[in-house]
# Entry
Amino acid sequence: MNQTEHAETTVYLSLDASTMVASKQVHIEDIASVFCSQPDIMHDVKKIKLFTFRDNEQGQLVVNALAIIGEILKYDKSVTVQNIGSQECVVYYRNLSDGHKRTGKIKAAFLMLLAFFGTAYSIMSYNGDVDAIDLLQDLYQMFTGTQASATTAGYRFGILFYCVGLFFGMLLFFNHGLNHKKADDPTPLQVQMRLYERDVNDAIVVDSAREGTSLDVD
# Structure
């Protein structure tokens, strides 16, 4: 390559905070977005190999932006590299073969059942703590003037509407419908999951820096 031909070339790098890959060999394009005014340089930079995971099942590694810049400068010392993204990227490797996909589906189904029965138990415990049944009986007597019993049709309808209202109230609170979300904004659960994910990534970055296991400049 003619080094003087691209003397003024700038490579823009936007490193992701975290990403998951399915291949053991990790290239720059797998963990960052790359832009350059020279298409040939941009293509070659994207294909630069950074490292290879040794574990066949799963793994993780923290990659410092300086390490990527160093690899790009090894390719062409005349280019200028500007990182406009994160300073570190937590790279997760997962084996996504058919066998592992089936195992993942089984785990997901188990977690769904666990969440379902756990939520049902929580709702029943709440109803028991606040005496929801007695409250419905008092409301029925206040509006009708008669004492409610388990066989009273109006009382049964009150319990039914309470259950239906609880169901739709949870749908509205978590901003989900049967097939699509009511709005484009994230749900409270999604917000908490993103905050948790960011905290986990920050902890992994700090631990890797202390242990010296991150991919950094030599």
About this structure: The longest helix spans residues 98-130. The mean pLDDT is 84. The helical segments are 28-31, 39-46, 65-75, 98-130, 132-144, 153-173, 188-211. The first strand starts at residue 10 and ends at 15.
